[in-house]
Amino acid sequence: MAEMQVSVIIPTYNSARFLTEAIDSVLAQSFKDLEILVIDDGSTDETKAVMQRYGPPVRYIYQANAGVAAARNRGIKESRGRYVAFLDADDRWLEDKLETQLDALARNTGCRACYSAFTIADHHLNPIDIRRSNRQGRAIDDLLSSGNVIGTPSTVLCERRLFEAVGGFDPEMSQCADWDMWVRLASHTEFLYLAAPLVIYRQHDGNMSRSASLLESDSLRVLEKGFAMTDLTATQRGRRRAAFARNYMVLAGAYFQAGSYGDFARCASRAMAMDIRQAGYLMAYPVRMTARLLRHKSAETV
Fold first, then answer.
1. Which domains does the chain have, with CATH numbers?
2. pLDDT per residue over 97-150, tens digit each?
3. Distance between CA atoms of residues 72 and 55, nearest Å
4. Are the C-beta atoms of residues 105 and 114 closer than 8 Å to each other?
5. Who's near 109: CB < 8 A, 6+ residues apart?
6. pTM of the shown model
7. For the chain, how many helices (H) and strands (E)?
């Protein structure tokens, strides 16, 4: 079949209540040379009935439940576009999302992938905040040293051939498969960042819960794999210890919020043993926690 410009991959699992809004936001794009692949990862709700109302360019593919990484991999395998874009089933795109990104990539020929800021919204899509990338330098350096600076997959547009070069999403990861993918892609291309929020990320009770223990195993696996890449420079390899230290302090915060204070102490101690500068992060933690609680309280009153 002829190649089109963009394949949009929407993995879904029991998200029928939001799925129509996601699909319709793609169909409403100002850019039209696209296909939409809805990968149903074993849903048991009304997803199949919802999908019966759609025809081309929407394609519905059902598979036994295997996780979101496997669903995205299935979408990439079935795709025909020059570019692949991802959209989670509970998120929405602004109508100029694809056009804006494609135009930006055409002007920045050294980049083969693009992402953007996004709006965080409540269950009813009332805006809460805008999440911007805290990029400081090259994507590969920031992803290894500062965590998942790319953010939600729903903003990413990338050349399909790059996925063939780096392989699929790691199905052994439950929480950090996207971060791991961005690291591998960034070893082949720079990511172009657009400060305009082009995606609405919906927060609701059904969002994937974040287990601190799974976050620990996943995030350490991302860094182990990332720093084992053979094409890193000596300078990049030299940041390994500081990167692990930062990650352990992030994990300390996750365990603290989960009420697992023994693991909080273990990770915080490990972080400071690896990089004493993490002590400053720990000292500021109560202030950040208070600010976060105030933001959540404000969001609940919207």
1. 4-202 (3.90.550.10), 213-300 (no CATH)
2. 999 999 999 999 999 999 999 999 998 889 999 999 988 899 999 999 999 999
3. 21
4. yes
5. none
6. 0.90
7. 13, 9
